[in-house]
Amino acid sequence: MTGxxxxxxxxxxxxxxxxxxxxxxxxxxxxxxxxxxTIALAGGSTPRHLYRALAGPLASLIPWPRLVFxxxxxxAVPPDDEASNFRSAQEILLSKAPIRAEQVHxxxxxxxxxxxxxxxxxxxxxxxxxxxxxxxxxFLGMGADGHTASLFPGEPEPxxxxxxxxxxxxxxxxxxxxxxxxxxxxxxxxxxxxxxxxKADRVAQVIEDDGPLPMQRILHHRAGETLVIMDxxxxxxxxxxxxxxxxQR
Length: 249
Ligand code: 6PG
Hints:
This protein is of the alpha/beta class.
């Protein structure tokens, strides 16, 4: 049975805190198994509040030794480049967490051969998260065009579990690496964070209708748990009532 829930919060900071608290519940639950808890981090700016909440107020409650982090998608830049999603997660969260280097896997997005780098990362995903890879928790954002991770409208849907993709000409760094739709659909828990008025029309579209946009291809076809966490600005045009009452925090 496919389906997804959503919650609406006052602002982006509240979205980040709610996502962190929700993620903590998932981490604690999954930490009872004998396998590592596998987490894919989102890129862009929206997750920064989430990362601050995980590295700050909630840090003492998190089962850090059990966690293994992946970068859900990356721009084809070196890890110290300001456009790097790894750099952002590393600065705000990973460098502040009591974890060992081997608990973090990043794709070699600086490589000249991105196809080989994607294949190498997919192999790591399979080694840690199983074959086929079933990530315990994936964080995603969404662009105003309905893209998610580095899966963009109008681009061919990549095969496999982690692939080389392409962003539009007007975005930072066209060459990308990304979890594929198949990997996103196969995750146990998916937390999507969307904030900002500029995304309100697209949010209404992807929540209310299935369709060809990457976020639609994910939201409306997931078997696992999927939660969209929005601020009021992004949710302004959502007309459907949430499957559960909107939890205002
Ligand atoms: C990326 C992200 C991308 C992001 C959206 C939203 O590499 O850019 O993975 O999918 O989540 O573009 O970006 P903001 O959070 O900055 O609005």
